[in-house]
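Researcher: Here's a chain I'd like modeled. Treat it as a single chain, no partners, no ligands.
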Amino acid sequence: MGKQLNVGLLGMGVVGSGVCQVLAEQKVAIKARTGVEITITKALASPYEDKSAVAEKYGFSLTTSVEEICADPSIDVIVELIGKIDPAKAFILTALAHKKHVVTANKDLIATHGPELMAAAEAAGVSLYFEASVGGGIPILRTLSTHYLPDTITGIFGIINGTTNYMLTQMVAEGLSYETALSEAQEKGFAESDPTNDVDGIDAAYKMVILTKFAFGMTIALTDIDITGIRGLSIDDIQQAAAFGYDVKLIGGAQKNKNGALAVSVGPVLVPQSHALASIKSEFNGVFIKSTGIGQSMVYGPGAGSRPTATSVVADLTELAKHKAEGIVTPFIQFAAPTKLASASEKVDRYYLSCPAAVDVSALIADVLDPTVAPQQTNGITAYLTQPISQQFAEERFGKVAGIQMMKVMEEF
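Model: Modeled as a single isolated chain. Structure tokens:
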């Protein structure tokens, strides 16, 4: 292979074009730092778009055959940027079968089939990297897999969906309704025409599957996560939370209890306005980490977009280049621990509760109210904060009562 890393590119959309641009701009710097020149030599042509001008600009050939790219003996690594699960999974397995390293930004695929793909990479003696699958331009996965090796993480909490964070920021700052904030996000290109995965918390949940593996070594499925989206979240609840001193954020969280059991969730959470995560605005992402060694830290940056995501993809390529120069092959994640999940009775949090002022819930909530915080009443809505109670208790007591809105409250660390 010499001192050159030849790349086959699958996917020439926004991120794929960004990878071409970043590599062209940084080729000299990357070679100076790694001793290896990274070059895209062949890319998969789409039958729906003419990318010949892009190929000519960056000096690579086009083909309509994935097999041709994967079987090419001169290509060292396949970059998969097609997205979705199919046919991306089949393409990656084909690449691994041909003993090609693989770099992908495909969070849905890694969250759903990560163990299978990582096992296939290990069997083939090659690497599978996917830094860009979580947080776009935020180097969170490599941070967890390297800097936290001598540390023990006890909790990880993230704003990991730019669409919902933009919407919630606008609801707080401009007093917009959910519907208006969503429409604005779509107009600005932050939300898809079908925003289901974003607003229902699915996108963030996929990312939590991956973050949980890197932070705790545990392999979980989407069904192991308590998922609640922001659909139908009212401006009244946003304003009530602010009156209590909190901002509402869609938080993906994973935390160990004293018995070592893990609670993983995605949902709207009241975050103290003094907390670092409350400072994450608009489409930006941030991941807050609690550990026994470092204590508290946060990684922050753009969570999506062509340039940030492409930069993370190229960062994976530079890691492969360094390993090539050193003659080694390393898996992205080696950390593995038995999966131990907390039961609903073990998941304990304070809760925000709200209901129409005309509804008398005093008998329901009297024994769990936080005595240090007075209820708030605005626009015909009464809101309360509880003492710490279990999820099981909260669901059994309040979950089926019409008109009651429940959200967890994050503590100030």
